[in-house]
Q: What sequence folds into this?
């Protein structure tokens, strides 16, 4: 009887552990490429799946408008993305790596609209919990 209780307890713990693990993001999936692709999908197509996972908890968003720099928090940007969910931008998007090493990368994401270009300089860092976006600086040309 004691053995049966031990086996049932072990199975129950295994099931609970598996369920908890299923909700965690696999850090192996949080690569540089995944972080940038997720950001581009959110900005240009309104696809938000995985965005929360690739944004660092202390991420900062800044935007240069004329001579004024506007800054936004993680929550403000997530609210903005949510309000534009599934909205496809009418732009052509390109990415280029400005700098990259084992711990940090800066990627330029250009969104070309009719009449202007929005350039986003996206900094991603290897946080120990995968690659996460830590800073986004946008300028309009």
A:
């Amino acid at each position: 009887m004691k053995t049966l209780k031990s086996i049932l307890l072990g199975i129950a713990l295994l099931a609970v552990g598996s369920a908890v693990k299923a909700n965690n993001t696999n850090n192996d999936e949080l690569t540089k490429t995944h972080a940038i692709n997720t950001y581009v999908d959110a900005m240009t197509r309104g696809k938000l799946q995985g965005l929360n996972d690739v944004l660092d908890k202390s991420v900062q968003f800044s935007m240069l408008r004329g001579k004024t720099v506007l800054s936004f928090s993680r929550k403000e940007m997530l609210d903005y993305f949510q309000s534009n969910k599934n909205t496809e931008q009418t732009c052509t998007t390109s990415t280029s790596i400005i700098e990259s090493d084992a711990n940090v990368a800066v990627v330029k994401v250009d969104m070309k609209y009719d009449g202007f270009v929005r350039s986003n300089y996206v900094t991603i860092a290897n946080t120990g919990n995968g690659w996460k976006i830590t800073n986004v600086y946008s300028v309009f040309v």
Remarks:
- The beta strands are 55-65, 68-72, 92-100, 104-113, 116-126, 131-140.
- The CA atoms of residues 54 and 132 lie 5 Å apart.
- Residues 2-23 form the longest helix (22 residues).
- The chain has four helices and six strands.
